[in-house]
Structures are given as structure tokens and as C-alpha cells.
């Protein structure tokens, strides 16, 4: 037991600080990817509900495409594809400078696109259950479409979507392990590095499992509190 505590210590020869930094990277990725993906997913869902095909079809293709592609393939396309595209654009303008894509940016962008595709389906379902009469009541009160959505429809859609968005958040948290393939040191990559250098593969991959479980448990508790908070007006109304 003492041996394993030493391996996870913050002293020289211990991996504690490295795992702490890796956990911070995993949290940073999740916090950047999920909100961006959820917001983009809402925009895609609204486009899919449009009566105009010029908005509806691109959104449908986007959702179908990124829900069908493996997340790892999407990550590679964004990471290497952006590099190739930027190099081609520079050559077209006569520049030969070397461009490197930031791995954190590429990871956030790629996984946010995937998260948006899945979140769009969640938002579509949440918007469908809102009674059409709410639109008609808002129109009768002369509310603009923007005001109707922001003040009437979005709060209800968010409440309906929270349980599934919580699942999407956990999926994003787990998918951050994929960025280890483009040299970002998060929990998965740090577990592998520690396992290779120390020869204690089972222990360090087990450490990674525990860290993911702790982050998932914290996320689950947070979303449960958010769900309870979103239902407070209904409970207050029933209590009258």
C-alpha cells in the first residue's frame, strides 16, 4: 500500500502533480466542449424546425453526418484537415510559412461538433413537447419572435432537455480521452505514460478509472441539482 501511495504522491518520483494537471486538462476540455456543443446544437435544432429548406437541409445534413462519423475520425479530420487547409490557403496567396494547429483548439472544435449533432436531437425533442398554444399566446401579446423564444420557449425547452443534456455532458467527459491521440496530456494519456514508465499498468489505469468516476459522480450530482432548481416554480405553484 505504501508503494502505491508513494507513486501518487506530490513529492519527487510521485505522479500526483502530473495526474492533477491531467485532471485539470480533462475538466478544461469538458467545460469548453459541452457548452459550445449544446449552444451550437440548439442553433442546429432551430434550423431543422425552420419552414425554409435553405436552413433545414444543411442542419439535417450536419446532424446526420456528425452523429454517424466516429468521434476519433472527426478529431483527425479537424486536426489534420485544418492544417492542410491552412497550408493550402497560404500557398495560394504565395506564402510558404509553416502553420501548426493547436491541439487543444482542434480537440474542442472537433468534439463540440459531435456534441452539437447529438444535442440538436435533444433540443428538437424538448421543443416538440411545448404546446403550440404558447406561440399563439405570445403572438396575441404582440411579443416578437426573439422575445417569445428567449422568455417563453427556451426556459421550458431547457427544463425538458436537462436530463438528456446531462447524459451528453457525461459523454463529452468520456470523449475527452480521445484527444490523447493528438498529444494532449489528459487523464487517459497521463495514465498511459505513468503505466509505461513505472511498469504499474493496472494501478495507473485504475487511477484513471477512479478519476473519471469521481468527475462523473460530481457532474451527475450537479445536473440533479439543476433539474431540481428548474422545477422549483412548478412545486411552488402546486404548494399554493
From TrEMBL:
GO molecular function annotation: transmembrane transporter activity
Classification via SUPFAM superfamilies: MetI-like (SSF161098)
Subcellular location: Cell inner membrane; Cell membrane
PROSITE patterns noted in UniProt: ABC_TM1 (PS50928)
Pfam family, one: BPD_transp_1
GO biological process entries: amino acid transport
Main localization of the protein described in the UniProt heading: membrane
CDD domains: TM_PBP2
Transmembrane helix is among the record's keywords: yes
Gene3D superfamilies cross-referenced by the UniProt entry: MetI-like
Keywords: Amino-acid transport, Cell membrane, Membrane, Transmembrane, Transmembrane helix, Transport
Residue intervals of the ABC transmembrane type-1 domain: 23-215
Domain of life: Bacteria
Topology in membrane: Multi-pass membrane protein
GO cellular component, as recorded: ATP-binding cassette (ABC) transporter complex
Transmembrane segments: 20-46, 72-93, 99-127, 201-223
InterPro entries: AA_ABC_transptr_permease_3TM (IPR010065), ArtM/GltK/GlnP/TcyL/YhdX-like (IPR043429), MetI-like (IPR000515), MetI-like_sf (IPR035906)
Function: Part of the binding-protein-dependent transport system for glutamine; probably responsible for the translocation of the substrate across the membrane.
Family membership: Belongs to the binding-protein-dependent transport system permease family. HisMQ subfamily.
Name of the protein in question: His/Glu/Gln/Arg/opine family amino ABC transporter permease, 3-TM region
Originating species: Candidatus Tokpelaia hoelldobleri
Amino acid at each position: 500500500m505504501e508503494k502505491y501511495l508513494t507513486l501518487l504522491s506530490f513529492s519527487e518520483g510521485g505522479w500526483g502533480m502530473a495526474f492533477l494537471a491531467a485532471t485539470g486538462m480533462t475538466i478544461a476540455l469538458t467545460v469548453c466542449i459541452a457548452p459550445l456543443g449544446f449552444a451550437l446544437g440548439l442553433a442546429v435544432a432551430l434550423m431543422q424546425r425552420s419552414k425554409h429548406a435553405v436552413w433545414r437541409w444543411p442542419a439535417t445534413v450536419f446532424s446526420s453526418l456528425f452523429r454517424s462519423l466516429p468521434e476519433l475520425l472527426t478529431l483527425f479530420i479537424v486536426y489534420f484537415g485544418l492544417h492542410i487547409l491552412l497550408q493550402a490557403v497560404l500557398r495560394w496567396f504565395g506564402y510558404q510559412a509553416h502553420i501548426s494547429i493547436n491541439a487543444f483548439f482542434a480537440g474542442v472544435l472537433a468534439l463540440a461538433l459531435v456534441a452539437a449533432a447529438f444535442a440538436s436531437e435533444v433540443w428538437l425533442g424538448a421543443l416538440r413537447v411545448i404546446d403550440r398554444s404558447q406561440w399563439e399566446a405570445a403572438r396575441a401579446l404582440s411579443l416578437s419572435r426573439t422575445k417569445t423564444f428567449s422568455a417563453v420557449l427556451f426556459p421550458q425547452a431547457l427544463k425538458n432537455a436537462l436530463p438528456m443534456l446531462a447524459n451528453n455532458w457525461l459523454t463529452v467527459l468520456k470523449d475527452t480521452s480521445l484527444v490523447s491521440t493528438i498529444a494532449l496530456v489528459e487523464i487517459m494519456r497521463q495514465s498511459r505514460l505513468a503505466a509505461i514508465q513505472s511498469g504499474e499498468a493496472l494501478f495507473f489505469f485504475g487511477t484513471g478509472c477512479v478519476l473519471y468516476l469521481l468527475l462523473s459522480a460530481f457532474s451527475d450530482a450537479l445536473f440533479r441539482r439543476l433539474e431540481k432548481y428548474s422545477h422549483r416554480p412548478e412545486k411552488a405553484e402546486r404548494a399554493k
